Amino acid sequence: MVEINNLTQTAVDVCLVKKIIGLILEKEGFGSNALISLALVGPGRMKKINKTYRKKNKTTDVLAFAEHKASLGKYKLGRLEKIQGIGEIIICPREVKKNVKRLKTNFKQEFFKVLIHGVLHLLGYDHEQSGKKAVEMAEKEEKYFKAILSFL
């Protein structure tokens, strides 16, 4: 299940967001009881959140905050029958638009790339821990992005 709170003027395809998150959760072994919250915020709010929780005084395109990090591994192994909230993903559409200009891509593709990135962080993938973990996460991101290209 996905809850979406759009605090911006940027329109997003809610059905597609839910479909993509559902696909990733299913492929990663999470059941239908998993809940992810998605918030779309402006750059000012994103900068404040980033400063408060990561001590980085700048805006960013995506942040992810896992609810039950210790439980996720158990759930992935099938020992946890039910989980409520996995966590929250926060995306700043204005930063995504900056990525689009820099990377010469389109908004829809870039938005879903950062969404996939955020979901993977919630599921325990972390590119900041080591080079090996970064490669593993990048491979997963590419795999899921290729899987959703037909949706776009």
Please give the CATH class: Alpha Beta
Over the alpha carbons, how many angstroms does the gyration radius reach? 15 Å
In helices, the fraction of residues equals 40-55%
Mean pLDDT: 87
Instruction: Tell me the number of structural domains.
Output: 1
CATH superfamily: Metalloproteases ("zincins"), catalytic domain
What is the ordering of alpha helices and beta strands? EHEHEHEHHH
Biggest pleated sheet: 4 strands, mixed
Number of strands: 4
- First CA to last CA: what distance? 21 Å
Query: Strand portion, in percent?
Result: 15-25%
**What class would the helix/strand composition place it in?**
alpha/beta
**Strand order in the largest sheet:** 1-2-4-3
**CATH architecture identity:** 3-Layer(aba) Sandwich
Write the CATH fold name: Collagenase (Catalytic Domain)
Q: Please count the helical segments.
A: 6
Low-pLDDT segments: 70-81
Assign an overall shape: globular
Write the layout of secondary structure elements.
Elements: E1 2-6, H1 14-27, E2 35-40, H2 43-54, E3 62-66, H3 69-76, E4 85-91, H4 93-103, H5 107-122, H6 131-148
Parallel strand pairs: 1-2, 2-4
Antiparallel strand pairs: 3-4
Helix pairs in contact: 1-5, 4-5, 5-6
Describe this structure in words.
The protein has 152 residues and is an alpha/beta fold. The chain has one domain: Metalloproteases ("zincins"), catalytic domain (Collagenase (Catalytic Domain), 3-Layer(aba) Sandwich), CATH 3.40.390.30. It has 6 helices and 4 strands. It has helices spanning 14-27, 43-54, 69-76, 93-103, 107-122, 131-148; strands at 2-6, 35-40, 62-66, 85-91. Strand 1 (2-6), helix 1 (14-27) and strand 2 (35-40) form a beta-alpha-beta unit. It is globular and about 35 Å long. Residues 70-81 have low confidence and may be disordered.
